[in-house]
Recover the amino acids of this structure.
């Protein structure tokens, strides 16, 4: 506890948990990126691509992403309510159990215990654990909100409330299953219905982990870091309600041209296009916040992260609905284009905003100055370059593979067999791996910088 | 602007807002039989095929292989007839996948003999030098565990009796260990000597792959 009584130990604990799982998740990511052009790396069953890919996605989505959200939201919650956490001890239990759960999750996925549902691969006992952890978190969120000293709830708190409610609904509905043993269960839904439920979840879990709480960080830390108020409160209200309303209709754009009824697909396309509006509401609000103060892009190292981050969010939210259109989807779906799309969001938007939020927050909760702004700048340029090379490489590779699948000879027969379309991607996979290394070095600098920051002795006030 | 100072009201309102799209596009379709039609021409998996499917799930094959052929000209040319909703009535979970690092498998059943699969699973690179598929020869060194097969079939409601389940298991074992099994030689090459007269995980996953897309032919014949 600091002198103001705020519970900062848990914030710090979650922040460093996030960094730990970030490094682990990226190491696994590099390993599977290498396997894509060198299958000899599939050394043992538990190192084979099929098992390792889910360790990568869960390690980063649940480990890094959620820990980053818990760290920043516990901080934001206390600052915006001017109230210490309602149950600081419960928050610490949440921290320890969270890390135990992520470790067990990784272990179980290595062992092949998977339900196959994307971003919900954990088997049922761990699902129960996740729900308990979420309840612990929600108790603190609402407990603190009810005790708050500040009457009005600022924008970031809306996003935190919406996430808390929605993740609970998504996670429980999607993971309903009948257990066979402790390590195996079957979904209660079948076939097309199962697919529809899973992609309603899959799309929205990305929305409510990688968008909604990251917007909460953006709306809080951008004004804090710049000293500038958010441009339009009204725009943020419209963006918020339109975003959380429209998001839930769009899952089926992941199931274009499958046996799912066509009307569900078409409704999803329509709402995906609509989603551009509230997404860009936040982008515009961010840009206009800086109006007249763009020199901060040079003078304030944090602003680069926020502005590039929201720019990638803006690009992401145009690319997503576009590739959801039926004709374009027929070309891009199942290729590496989509892999590039996801990684612009995660490596660009999410990682940029969490980086800047941590840089702002860690010095304030420890009372230490940031170890090195120069290193923070190096970190910025490395993850920017790494991410751009990574995603652009995958887009080009995806276009090539999509074109090869569709290419026909004058007599109407297929021009390429499937293997041709795989082997032609190997140069891209090598470049992607190299870009991943650049990105990883940037992240190591980030971690080093924050570790050195907390190891300093507090500055005498 | 009262709701912005009432957290509980705000949470309830958020829940209502997110549930509208959820109810229309997810909950209502669950109760429409047209979303997941059932056809008597599509048969549930046998015990062995189901065990094979669970190995496919355990190894995360769906991370690289899809199981839906889209109604596109080049796709039908490459894989065969496009996927029909009836085919997936017994799929819990569905395994449509989201990325084709390898080819779609929804029409793989019957495309190649078992021996092709034994050889390919043992060493994809031995068959296609530049393939990036991981080798799965070690599946042949694992005895197939059928201890939960009946329980699984019961939970999934496939309608086989206890006798039918054990019959399916012994029939398949008799098939792959018979001297006149057409893929006998390749199976013996990839299977350790001690397991040649037993069912292995390799046998089961191949049985599953050979089932994929088989019944759709009955469906087409009927239409």
């Amino acid at each position: 506890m600091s002198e103001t009584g705020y519970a900062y130990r848990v914030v710090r604990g979650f922040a460093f948990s996030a960094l730990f799982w970030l490094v682990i998740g990226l190491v696994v990511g590099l390993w599977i990126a290498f396997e894509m052009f060198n299958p000899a790396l599939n050394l043992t069953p538990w190192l084979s691509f099929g098992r390792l890919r889910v360790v990568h996605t869960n390690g980063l989505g649940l480990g890094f992403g959620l820990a980053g959200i818990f760290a920043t939201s516990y901080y934001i919650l206390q600052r915006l309510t001017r109230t210490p956490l309602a149950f600081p001890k419960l928050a610490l239990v949440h921290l320890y159990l969270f890390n135990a759960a992520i470790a067990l999750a990784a272990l179980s996925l290595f062992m092949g215990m998977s339900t196959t549902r994307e971003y919900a691969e954990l088997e049922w006992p761990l699902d129960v654990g996740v729900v308990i952890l979420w309840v612990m978190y929600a108790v603190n969120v609402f407990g603190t909100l009810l005790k708050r000293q500040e009457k009005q709830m600022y924008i970031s708190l809306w996003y935190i409330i919406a996430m808390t409610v929605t993740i609970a609904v998504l996670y429980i509905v999607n993971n309903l299953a009948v257990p066979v043993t402790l390590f195996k269960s079957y979904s209660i839904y079948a076939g097309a219905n199962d697919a529809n439920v899973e992609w309603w979840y899959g799309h929205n879990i990305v929305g409510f982990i990688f968008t909604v709480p990251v917007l909460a960080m953006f709306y809080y830390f951008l004004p804090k870091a710049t000293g500038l108020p958010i441009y339009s409160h009204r725009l943020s209200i419209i963006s918020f309600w339109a975003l959380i309303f429209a998001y839930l209709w769009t899952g089926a754009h992941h199931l274009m041209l499958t046996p799912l009824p066509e009307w569900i697909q078409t409704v999803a396309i329509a709402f995906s296009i609509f989603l551009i509006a509230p997404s860009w509401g936040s982008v515009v609000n961010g840009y206009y916040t800086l109006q007249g103060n763009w020199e901060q892009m040079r003078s304030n190292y944090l602003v680069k992260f926020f502005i590039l981050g929201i720019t990638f969010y803006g690009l992401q939210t145009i690319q997503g609905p576009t590739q959801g259109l039926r004709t374009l989807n027929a070309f891009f779906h199942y290729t590496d284009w989509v892999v590039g799309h996801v990684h612009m969001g995660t490596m660009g938007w999410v990682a940029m905003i969490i980086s800047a939020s941590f840089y702002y927050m860690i010095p304030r909760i420890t009372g230490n100055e940031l170890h090195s702004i120069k290193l923070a700048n190096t970190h910025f340029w490395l993850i920017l370059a790494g991410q751009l090379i990574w995603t652009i490489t995958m887009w080009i590779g995806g276009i090539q593979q999509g074109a090869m699948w569709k290419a026909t000879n004058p007599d109407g027969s297929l021009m390429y067999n499937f293997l041709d379309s795989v082997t032609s991607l190997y140069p891209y996979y090598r470049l992607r791996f190299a870009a991943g290394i650049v990105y990883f070095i940037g992240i190591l600098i980030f971690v080093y910088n924050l570790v050195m920051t907390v190891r300093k002795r507090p500055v005498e006030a | 602007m009262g709701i912005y100072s009432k957290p509980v009201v705000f949470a309830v309102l958020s829940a209502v807002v997110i549930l509208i799209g959820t109810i229309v596009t997810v909950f209502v379709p669950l109760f429409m039989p047209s979303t997941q039609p059932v056809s008597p021409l599509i048969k549930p998996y046998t015990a062995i095929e189901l065990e094979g499917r669970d190995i496919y799930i355990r190894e995360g094959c769906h991370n690289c292989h899809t199981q839906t052929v889209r109604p596109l000209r080049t796709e039908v040319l490459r894989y065969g007839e496009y996927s029909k909703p009836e085919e997936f009535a017994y799929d819990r979970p569905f395994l449509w996948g989201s990325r084709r690092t390898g080819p779609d498998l929804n029409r793989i059943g019957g495309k190649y003999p078992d021996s092709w699969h034994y050889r390919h699973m043992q060493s994809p690179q031995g068959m296609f030098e530049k393939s990036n598929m991981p080798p799965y020869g070690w599946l042949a060194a694992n005895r197939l565990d059928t201890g939960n097969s009946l329980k699984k079939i019961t939970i999934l409601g496939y309608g086989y009796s206890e006798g039918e389940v054990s019959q399916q298991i012994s029939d398949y074992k008799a098939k792959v260990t018979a001297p006149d099994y057409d893929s006998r030689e390749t199976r013996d090459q990839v299977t350790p000597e001690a397991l040649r007269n037993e069912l292995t995980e390799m046998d089961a996953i191949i049985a599953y792959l050979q089932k994929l897309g088989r019944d759709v032919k009955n469906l087409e014949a009927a239409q």
Observations:
- Chain B touches chain A through 77 residues (CB under 8 Å).
- DSSP finds ten helices and no strands in chain B.
- The mean pLDDT of chain B is 96.
